[in-house]
Amino acid sequence: MEEGTIVHVEYDLYNAESGDLIETTREEVAKEHEMHQEGRSYSPLVCVVGSGNLISGFEESLLSAKADEDISVEIAPADAYGDKDPDQIETISIDKLLRHVRDPKSLYIGGPVSIEGRQGTLSYLAAGRARIDYNHPMAGRKLKYDYKIVKVIEGKEEKVSALLEANTGHEGFEVSFDGDDLSIIVPQTMLFDTNAAMQKFRLVTVLRDAVEAGKVSFVEVHEPRVATEDEESEGDNSCENPKCEDPSCETPECDVDVGEEE
After folding, report:
1. Stated pTM of the model
2. Quick one: three-class SS letters along 155-189?
């Protein structure tokens, strides 16, 4: 694959030494290894070859890969998440640990902890001491990728759509070019995404790097609210008599005798 090519990749990631599955984009593989997550959408990874967003060993393999080819590659720690650095492992008192944890019941070996702004993993907890590992969780591991490039994205609009979906998790973008200027109609689901505003700044950089776009415009279309059948039904059955106290009354002209005030 040439550098800058946008591709869809199906992959299974294993611990090369133990054979344990770490991550997969294929639902059948997740079920086979009893790692299936309900509600998750299993789909190929969308990536830009040579962009530097993946571990270097995987990037290098993609550069020499061909579409629709089953590939298996083992990656040494130095070309993955690095060797485990002993200086990034700290032992502290349990009292200090508890001062930084809101719910002590949430602590478990292998679980994430944050100490003074640093994110780490709890690797030991006993005898009044706790050990926090600030290395990447997969540091020191030799990895194995079994993967296939299942699609190569062609065309500027298709490239933009693929990158938008991969970077936001939303679908249904309407993309059009006017020369080099790019217009993107945002799907309705993204209008309610609290992270959308910050995502747009990052997306502009991603898109310009991938397709050399000029001006990038995000267009939000807010559709008019349409009343549901239940709401319309409730509106039709409202009683116009202000003195009617019967909640079951469904007639506009209530037969309650209002009379005259004495």
Report:
1. 0.71
2. CHHHHHHHHHHHHHCCCCCEEEEECCEEEEEECHH
